[in-house]
Structures are given as structure tokens and as C-alpha cells.
Design goal:
The structure is a homotetramer of 357-residue chains. Chain A has 357 residues and is of the alpha+beta class. Chain A is 26% helix and 22% strand. In chain A, α3 crosses α8.
């Protein structure tokens, strides 16, 4: 169950303190000239140690391709890749070997598998998402060929919320600050909020908004694999995610149908809608409007402060974790949200080739 | 792409105004004594015409099993079933043949397939969910054998919200009123709200809360198929759903980690947590606590009032739909939410048999 | 595990003496005008009672479509269909309820599922192949659109073997005799051989040869899902099949490489090979030459003569089956072989759309 | 389409002259103590340069595990592994860059993908089977825990055939000679035959027989995924394979049903059959008897002698391949056959856990 996607499939592997993280991408069309720099750029956006508000673990996070690329081009064959771990401090975890950290996967892994790699969270570490970012960066390169662009940004941190629609923002400004919020004023507040949490040895959650532009009509499968259902599945499967909504979302439940409906309008070239509460998807299929959605991230469970818990022998213990941790997952999760959206969209692009003979 | 599930798989078929709706369940374990009454009970909860606040289409919605059940027991072979349509008024849709109803799937189906069954929404009709309810009702019967119970209820209609946790409610009261809210006072407000919408020939949305009790530890796959990701995928794929959150959800993003973490505690028999912001799932795997989640439903797009739109030749037209429609999908969607949750859980129950040799 | 195919997927259901046999085809492209007569024609070729050398069970085997076809055209939505059983003589099987017939699935079903539908073999009956013939007949209609034709014929019955290559035969003559061998002289010998077996209350096996013409280059997946591996899988999964070979097959193992290799030659328009030991497939991918293969069928296990066996309580018993049975499965299996080949080919046709952006 | 298996899944990657060959095994149960020596032992049996009758390419073929194994035990998480290429002579292939070698995949790859890695056959090289051997060797270690053993041996080379049933042979003697035939006299003839082919710069084909002992009753899925269909699919997908038969196979088609049927007999403990024409499988499900089958391998296409062919511009050219090649694939394919059989069996072992609640 470590494979994502139906046609363009990522199978990921690796643990936080093992040899590395990587994956195999199967189903990537042949003949794509891979731009490695774009992949590294997204990896750099996800990388630890990139700013004062992220963990200080230092990883080069350089991707190595093991197969499937020849003379710079994809071959239609499986693209295997690895990012080798360099800066593990596995000793930091010796004390935690037999302890169940609160709101972590320690206890549930043991219950499921009877064994676990306790070093740095092992497979449950968010370091696993590197594989998603690599695959997503390749998916983006396919999508660009058909005019589709995916962008994400931080829209809330704790109670600090960006009170603007993505339509009123210049998304190109997202990368201009370390928290990845395209509104500078709000960004500064968010940064302060994260620093405050860090000072308290505490953590803080938030929301990331994703937008896909240029998706043509006709992508998505109408019943179980509605385009938004696949997007939701992709997002909710990211570490620390607690919720997903698209288009009008939870707020839209309060509207009456007559306010919520998106009226179709005539334009010279294409059919458009006046409003976009549908978030670009109707009946599970894209209608040509922008796709947009929100993803809720909980505050990270690893606190650098004392907490009560129990160990595997059911003794009460006090833990006081060492290690280098993020006070807030949001800034580094932006490229992960984009990657997962790109994986879903590239899959539905390929599936859309099968609609008719 | 009309198959749901990995081990216990439902493949559904059918259109609103075709011969019927049905499906094939493949992977149901052999030897289960099927209680048909329980299936019909859930179908009755989803049935049109069940109360004054639902559509008045009259369908018996009687399930007929076509295979896979012999002498009352499942055989391990595919269980095919159908619910035959009886009360279609297909003529109601003749006027809509070439028109794209706002926020419906008319336009996107044509864009995807180049053709569509326009009678009553065809495949995009929520009538398709009957197949899910049948399969879910069977899944529930498997789950009961391992002590797992799934229940859902309406927790908001429009702006009317049930301000209580499921823990403070008697969920057995859910079926005591026609809106399916276990708090009578709130239920009455909701019913009035729906009647008001109906009077306006308008519609209203809301939220359904689902709860699964008795799920043992160790269900769920840690990376892409986290238990909550599969639940989210299942819920978001239901017609009219705009969002999903589990445990602390979107609100939880505002908490600090030290408030959000669920501290493990000693009990005599099992490991428990003091709080349950995790919603019973950690690292994608169940931890033995209750699983709970919210599902957002938009107001139904079909209004019995005049609306502007365009037709397939890009002419501006005015529609004024006839037909029999729900002013609010929520009361009838409760068994659908339960069914989809049961399908996910039964799948992970079966998958959990594969954790070790 | 009752689903066949990757993109064009058949999920089948039904038992020999239940309500009927049917299936759901998911992934059939939209917009195909279905010719029902062609489907019925293939069903008639598979039908019991079609000639003096087949079982005399009388079934109309009329297909009823339950969904997915509207105004004569496929809609891209699931195509459900059923063939209702009419002429079951279930009482014929009462005596066999607790008995394990030799070389049948009675014993293994009980061992696997702990229960079984003993009437007429239940799910293990070759009556299940009706669903394959319907789906295959639709697949053929898609294939014709891209110039691909699939044909099969009986090439041996018992020790009577057709000693000609398909290249030296007029395959249009296949349907001119009841055994479905395109060489009349051999056909008559085969018919006599089957009649002889029937007179002995015995059965006889044989080989069916399949040919696909017009398959363009580039179909097939090079590693596990080689085009011939998928064909082999499809054929070996047919009831009573014991072997599969393609191109030069088992005989080819005796050749030296220099004799076996197919030399490429220049033609004005396309690349061809001088010989075709490769059977039209190289490295798992079609090369534009004819695809041809052999399928071995064992003699049917049901004999209308006394046999020793045991029952479920491990008592020695003698059985003397009643019922109406085929002395030789080959003539009726010809359309099944074609159907399974068509299902594999249509799948790889659709997959080939994904080779490049 | 580079994934094999349903529950225990191998996704393979790599090219003959790229960085290496490897894969990810997903779905291996947790808690298995991996014996790396047994994996290396099978790799050594497949390794080039192992004897005078194989290619002299020198590869250590040492497996490196990249994830999923911790403190010597499988973790239930993906097991990634690689075997790094060491002794590629890529220059040997420069002359073949634009040429289509007869009966190779050069032409079909270009037709499918529009591009290909021409060095040493790239992905179509039999070097890819290393990944299968590693995964199969792990599958064997799971199977041993449930008493199942898989063994293969060479039963014919060219026209030299081992005329004994596996029942009359001591399969432990298989590894005592370099051709892997358990009958020494026949083995010597086979070795001479291969040496003769090598002297002629030619190649020779043959047959490998596989046997699985200890498979309990109840493995296999009765319709499309019959246990023998999955075995056949696995075998036919091995490079150079042209045919598969199990139990009585093609010869069995000549028997009458009364001779072919396997009569059930009483034993004190388990149900047995007097004969085993069924090859241990009835109705697609194992019956507890030995499973046995034959796999036909064509003579390898790479000849070290002059051959006519064409290039990508449709010019007639003469090739005279250099490089180091096997005159006969059979001896090295024995562990590959075992590996693929083990992968199928471990999958059905795991699936059999799902038969009932």
C-alpha cells in the first residue's frame, strides 16, 4: 500500500534514519526531457534547515536517478530515484526506543506490525514526503506541456488567517518570504507566530491553499474517483493533515442553493461560470475553471518540552525529546501539497486519453 | 473507475432513469449469514419519499440479489444485486436534454464523454448511492462480527449547528426524527430550516458527523492509504460533498501542539489516550479510540425556480425545472455516510489480516 | 478477484443454477454504437444445445443490458448485463451435494470457502464464461474500429490434429461445420471422434488456435505484462485449459537461434519480418505481424459413467452423474478464446494511448 | 506496468547498462528474519559467468537493501533493494544504436516509446530478472514458514529431453551440475549440446520444469486468477518464454476424460488423489497435491554470428554482434522460474487469509 496513482504511479520507500528515501515512478510517458533543476528547486522548498523557522537538520536532499532516464529523457520505463540520508542523528532516539510519544505513530506501528524502526520515526517520518516531491516535480513537468499549473501557499498559521481569496493575491510572491504566504503583512504575522511557538518549545498548525490553473474540461471520473475525491485522498494522506475542502467547502454548506449555484455564461470561446463555488469541478469532472482547495495541518506532535506518556511495558514515563524539529510544518509542506495535486492531475490527464476511441 | 475498495470491492452500475441501480461486491468473505432486513432498513433510510422534507419520488427500493448468496449465506463469490427503478418520470427531463443546469454534471459529462444520458442526471444522479448503501449494509454485518459499529447523524443544516460533541449525545435517538439529528431541539430547528428552503423552492446544505466505535488498534496503512485518507476519499466521493475533516479537523489547526497532543494513559487492560484530537488514528493507523469525522454537503443544485443558463449551442436559456427534488440532501445522506465508512473499515479489517505471517 | 483487465475491465458474476450470469464492463470508451446482433452471434456460438456434439441443455442465452448504453451507444459509464438462466435442472445435482466429483472443483471450493453452491458446479461451471463472451464481443467491436480482428478455431481433438498452419487455411470456413475446424476433412474426423467419446459416455480434449490480425506495432508492456503474458493469463484462466504457447511455442525450443530468429526485411511501407516465430510479439510488444497461439483443453471431467470417489465425510462412494453434458468442450470454447483475446487486445489498445504525452 | 503481484507486490526497475537493477517489495509481512545468504545463493545461481556454458560478463550481483529491513527483520514497510551494475561494456553496443537486431525488442521499443536505451538491451535485457530473483528469494523464506517448497530444473535442451517424471528424480541433485538437470547422464548430454551451440556461435532453447510441494488446499482464486493462470502469467512473462503447461498439459489433451480424471481416495489424514493430472489444482484452487508445470524457452536471439537486418532508416545492414552472451538461457533461468513461482504462491498464501471472517 505504498503506491499512489492509477496510471502515473509512485511507489515510495525509505525511513528517516535508514539509507535514504526514494521511489519508483511507473507510467510516466516516454520522451519527456527532465529538468533536474526544477526537481531540486522543489526539494529545496521542502528541505530542512532552509530558514530560521524550520528544523536545523542539514540535508543536501540531492536526488539521484537510478533508472528510466537516458540521455536526459524519460524512456517510458520505471524511473527509480533515491535521496540519500546524510545528517541522521540516530542516537537522539535511543531513549525513545520503548516509549510511545503522544500523537505519534509509535504505538500504532507496534500494534500493527509488532516491530518498528524507532529511529526518527522511521517510515512514519515526514521525511518520506521527499519521494512525493520528486514525483510531483516530474508530474508538473508533464502538466506544463498541457498548460496546467499548480501552486500552493500558506493561508493560515494558528489563528492568523489570510483573509483574501487567492484571486486577489499575486501568487508569484509566495516564495518571497520564508513562511510562503503571498501577502507580506500576513506573512510577517505568521512568522512571528511560529517564532513564538518555537520559543515556547511548542508547535502550531495551519492551513495551506492549493490552486490548479489551466485544467481543461473533462478530467475526473464521475463516481468514486471524482477529481476532488482523488485530490482529497492525496491531501489527507499527507502527514499531519486533518481536513480537506474544495470550492465553497465547509462554509458553502451555509449557503442556499440559489446563492451557491454557479451560473453558466456565454463567452466567445469557451463556456464559463459566473461564480466558482464548484471549485472547477462538477459531478467529479473538471469544468475548465480554476480548481482550489484548502488543507488543514495539525500542530506537529513533537514538542521539545516535557510530556507525560507510557512505555511499551505500560509504565508511566516522562519524555523530553531532543533532536531538531519544526515548530510548524506549513512552510515546508507547500511543495508537498503542490506535488500531491500534480500527481492527481497528471493521472487524470492520462486517464482522459481513454474517454473515447 | 466505478470500483471502490481494495479487498472488499464494490463495482457499481446504473442510471437514475435506466433499468435500475446495482453492483457487484467482490471479496466479501464466505460464510456470512446475510440479514436482508438490515439491508432494507438502510435502504429505507436513504429512500425518497420517506418524509415531508424529502423528494416525493416513490421507489420501493427493494434489493434483489442475483448471485453469490446461497442458502442465505455468502459464498466468497461475487455478490451481484440490483434495485430496479420503478417511478421514473423521464418526461420531466425532455426539456433539459440540451441544457446545462447550473452546478450539475450536464456540461462536464458532455465534455468528457461526448454523450450523456440526460434523464434525471443519468449516472450522475445521487440515486447511484443506493449501490453504496447495499454494499455498506453488508460491510456493517461483517464489522459487527468483530465488534465495530458505525453511526452517522446530521450535525448542521445551513447555519443551524448542533453545538455538542457526539460524546454528549445519545446516538440512538438519531432515527427518532426525520432530519436524523440526535438532539430533538436542534432537530426541530433543522426541520423548520429545510421546510423554509422548500417553501422558497430553494435548497440548503449542511454537515454530517460520522462515528466508528470498537475499531481495534492496527487498522490502516501508514503512507498513502492512511485510514483517515481512505475515509476522506470515501466521503468526498459522495455526491454533493465539499469537505472532510476528522478528529480535531480544521479547528485543530488553531491549537498549539501541547494542547493538541493526546497523552497516553495507563488503564488496566488497554492503552488509552486522555483526549482524542487524533480522532482514533495516529500515523494513519487506528489506536483503539473512537474514530469521528465531519462531512460537508453543499446545497443541492436542483432548484424548482427559474434560473439562467446556456444550452449546448451556447444560447442563453431560462430553465424552470420540474420533477421531484430534495430541498436538503442531509437526512437521506446519513446512511450513505455510514455505508462508505463501513466499506473503508471492512477493507482495512481484511487488510489487517495481512500484517504478519 | 473476479475482475479481468486493467483499463477495459470485466467483473463477472453468477452461478450455473442461480438467477443468471452477468457482469459489469467498466472502462469501455464512450460513443461506441453497440451492435447487439454481433454479441448474440457469439453467444450462439457458445450456447449449449447448438449441435449434436454439445450438451442438450436449452438456454436462449439472450443478453439484457442493465446500464451504460443509451440510445444505442456506450456512455463511458459501467455497462452491466445479465443472461438469465432458464433451463436449470437443479435436482440433477441433489445426489452430488456432499460428494466430491473427480477432477472437479467441489473439493477445493469447500476447502477454500467452507461452503459451496453445489447446483451444477455453481460458480465453477463453465457457464460463467458467458460473461466473457459478451464482454469480448464488445471488445471486438472496439477493435474493429482500429482494424484488429481476432479469430479462433479447433486445431486438434484428442489425437486428431490439423496439420496445417493457419496461414494455409481459409479461416472463414471455421463456422461452416459444428466442430469449428476450418479444414473440412479434419473437421469430420474430429466430429466422429467426439461422437465416439459421447457413445462411451466419455469425454475428449484438444487444442484451439487463436489468431489476431491487424494489431499495430507498440501494443504490450515490456516486463510483467508482456502482450503474450497477458494473452497467456487470459487463456489459462479459461475453464479446462492446461497450457498455452504462442509463436513457435514448445516446438520452437528445439530450434537453434539462427533458425528461430525472424529477420527484419525492407518493404515499401512498413517493417516486416521474413518468418514469424515471434508470433507477432518481441520483447512483449507487438511488431505488426500476426499474433497466433495455441490453447490446450483437457477432456471434461464430467463423465456420464460410474466413477469411484469420496464424500465430505470421507466415505467411499460411487457416482453416476445425470445431467446434460458436453463430450468435448472445444467447439463451444472457440468464441471464449476469441473473447479473452479481444479483452486483452482492447486493453493494450487503450494502454497504448498512454505511451507518450 | 512494472509491478507484479496483488498483495506481495514487486515493482522492478533498472536497465542492463544503467546504474543497476532493483525493486521495491511492498506487502511483505512484518517480522520475517531475512536470511541474506539465501538471497545471494539464488543470485549466484542466476549470475553471469558462473560456468563455462554461460556468458562471461562478471558481475558480483550483490544485493543492497535500501529500506524496510531493520535489525535483520522485515518491518511491513516497503523493502527497496538494488544490485549495482559493475561490468557493463556499453561500448559493445555503439554499433547497434540504430539497428534492429532480429527477434530482439529494439524495433518494438522504438515503435512503442519513440526512444530506447540501446546499451545492452536496456530494460528489455534479461538482467532485469535479478529483481525477480531477489523478491522470489524473500517469498521463498515466507513460504518455508508454511511448509511450501519450490524447485525447478532443466528438463530439455534443444531436442535432448529428460524422459523421467519429477517423481522419479532426486531433485536435490539439480545443483550438482552446471546445466541444472537432476539426471547426470542427461545433464551431460545437455552440456555437450550447449557447448556445440556455443562453438557454432549459435544458441539453443529448452524447457524448465517447476514443482511446488507442500501447498495446502484452498489457495487460488476460482475465475480469472486461477492458481495456474497466475502461475502461467508469471512464467510467460519471463524473458524468452514461449509456452506454459501444468499438470497433464498439452499431452493431456489426447487422453479421454476417464483416463485423465484424478480419483479421490481415502487416507487416514487428508484427502488425496490417485493420479495427479490436475497438477495439484482443481477449479483454480490447490487441492493439496504437488503442483508441477513446464516452461518453454526459445533459443536466445543474440548470436555471435553475422546476420542480415535493417536499421532505423530502413537500410539493409549486416550485424555481427560483439559482447558476452549465453548460448543457452536455461541453466541461469532455473532460479528465475523458482522465483516467479514463489511470488505467485506467496501472494495466494496471503490471499487465502481473506477467504473467511
Amino acid at each position: 500500500m505504498n503506491t499512489f496513482g492509477k496510471i502515473f504511479r509512485l511507489t515510495s520507500f525509505g525511513e528517516s534514519h535508514g539509507k535514504g528515501i526514494g521511489g519508483i515512478i511507473d507510467g510516466c510517458p516516454a520522451g519527456l526531457e527532465l529538468d533536474i533543476r526544477l526537481i531540486q528547486k522543489d526539494l529545496a522548498r521542502r528541505k530542512p534547515g532552509q530558514s530560521k523557522i524550520t528544523t536545523q537538520r542539514k540535508e543536501p536532499d540531492q536526488v539521484e536517478f537510478l533508472s528510466g532516464v537516458f540521455e536526459g529523457k524519460t524512456q517510458g520505463t520505471p524511473i527509480a530515484f533515491a535521496i540519500w540520508n546524510k545528517d541522521q542523528h540516530s542516537k537522539d532516539y535511543n531513549d525513545l526506543k520503548d516509549v510511545f510519544r503522544p500523537s505519534h505513530a509509535d504505538y500504532t506501528y507496534i500494534q500493527k506490525y509488532g516491530t518498528r524502526d524507532y529511529r526518527g520515526g522511521g517510515r512514519s517520518s515526514a521525511r518520506e514526503t521527499i519521494a512525493r516531491v520528486v514525483a510531483g516535480a516530474i508530474a508538473k513537468q508533464v502538466l506544463v506541456k498541457v498548460g496546467v499549473y499548480v501552486q500552493a501557499f500558506v493561508s493560515s498559521v494558528g489563528e492568523i488567517k489570510l483573509n483574501k481569496s487567492y484571486l486577489d493575491l499575486d501568487l508569484n510572491k509566495t516564495e518571497e518570504n520564508i513562511v510562503r504566504c503571498p501577502d507580506l503583512e500576513t506573512a510577517n504575522k505568521m512568522i512571528s507566530r511560529i517564532e513564538e511557538a518555537a520559543k515556547d518549545n511548542d508547535t502550531v498548525g495551519g492551513v495551506i491553499t492549493g490552486v490548479a490553473k489551466g485544467v481543461p474540461t473533462g478530467w475526473g471520473e464521475p463516481v468514486f474517483n471524482k477529481l476532488h475525491a482523488d485530490l482529497g485522498f492525496a491531501m489527507i494522506g499527507i502527514n499531519a493533515v486533518k481536513g480537506f475542502e474544495y470550492g465553497s467547502g465547509f462554509e458553502g454548506t451555509k449557503l442556499s442553493g440559489s446563492k451557491h449555484n454557479d451560473v453558466f455564461i456565454r463567452t466567445e470561446e469557451v463556456v464559463r461560470t459566473k461564480t466558482n463555488n464548484s471549485g472547477g469541478i462538477q459531478g467529479g469532472i473538471s469544468n475548465g475553471e480554476d480548481i482550489y482547495f484548502n488543507v488543514a495541518f495539525k500542530p506537529i506532535a513533537t514538542l521539545l518540552k516535557e510530556q507525560q506518556t507510557i512505555d511499551k511495558d505500560n509504565n508511566e514515563v516522562t519524555i523530553n525529546p531532543k533532536g531538531r524539529h519544526d515548530p510548524c510544518v506549513l512552510p515546508r509542506a507547500v511543495p508537498i501539497v503542490e506535488a500531491m495535486a500534480a500527481l492527481v492531475l497528471v493521472d487524470h490527464f492520462l486517464l482522459s486519453k481513454l474517454n473515447s476511441i
